Amino acid sequence: YGPGYDPSRFLIIFGFFDETVREVFCGVAFTDPSEELVKLGATDRSAMIYRDDGAISNAVWDSTLYVTLSQKPEEQRAFYEARINDDAEAFQALHRKYRLEIALSLKNHAEAVLQTEYLVPTDQELSKIDVKQHPRLPMIL
């Protein structure tokens, strides 16, 4: 029924998330993350998207920029070193320089997830489900 670390998808689909939910897991997944990506927080399952303002956690922004810079290894290395060495000026300069690319990448990811993982079944689709096989389904519908 989905990954154990993130029940959000099913809770959202079946209407258990409402305006009191402050945050949801970020669905960005990096396959086979490098040591650098892990240090940037790419595998941190607490990386969230916040409901109140739509903010995305810093780990997600940082990891996405690092992957974006893979085509420019010198800048990728500079970004990583700035992050690890707490060079805020260089770190923020690279974030500013690639703000649009990161935002578009995350927007495309969000649209793809919404079109594939968070589809709410139609009434017609739900009516075809055999409640004998799924006896608890009527409780949530």
Describe, in short, the structure shown.
The protein is mainly α. It is built from eight helices and two strands.
Task: Present the secondary structure layout.
Blueprint: H1 8-13, E1 23-25, H2 35-40, E2 48-50, H3 58-68, H4 73-84, H5 88-97, H6 99-116, H7 123-127, H8 137-140
Antiparallel strand pairs: 1-2
Helix pairs in contact: 3-6, 4-5
Output the keywords.
mainly alpha; elongated
Describe what this molecule looks like in 3D.
The protein is mostly helical. Helix content is 51%, strand content 4%. The chain contains eight helices and two strands, in the order H-E-H-E-H-H-H-H-H-H. It has helices at residues 8-13, 35-40, 58-68, 73-84, 88-97, 99-116, 123-127, 137-140, and strands spanning 23-25, 48-50. Strands 1-2 form a two-stranded antiparallel sheet. Helix 3 (58-68) packs across helix 6 and helix 4 packs across helix 5. It is elongated, with a radius of gyration of 19 Å. The model has no long low-confidence stretch (mean pLDDT 81).
